[in-house]
Amino acid sequence: MLFIGLFFAVIIVLFLIGRKSANAEVFINAKPDKVWGILMNTAKYKDWNTVMIPLKGDLKEGNTVTYEFHQDEKNKYEIPSKVKKIETNKLLNQGGGMSGILTFDHKYILEEKDGGTKLTIHEDYRGIGVPFWSPKAVEKAYQRLAEDLKKAAE
Fold this sequence. Notes:
- This is Activator of Hsp90 ATPase-like protein.
- 31% of the residues lie in helices and 42% in strands.
- It is an alpha+beta fold and 154 residues long.
- Strand 6 and strand 7 form a beta hairpin.
- The termini are far apart.
């Protein structure tokens, strides 16, 4: 009985401390509507995006979009992501993962600033698997993605 109690206590602690995030930012010399148009046109992602390539699905609230995520030159993963919220020219929010184990909440945030756009790519991770994993490689990939989008828009 003590073992079972200890096991559940460890699971609860892992769940409570299982929180990390990745963040990337870039300033783009283009208005948010231009950046948004590029971001929402998944048919053209292969022309500019070296990180997240859509394999199937449409960017519409409630839909699932499956991406081929190129974390780096060696590692690529197929990741399904549910479109949670879209605010035109401001926010694209997607999420997924394994509930309780490792989930992600991914956001592209566009803010008009100084005649251009501040783009933030932010992802929060939750779950009992998070303490055993580092998002640093993902954060580097998202910085590449932000730079890719900058080049495409400018």
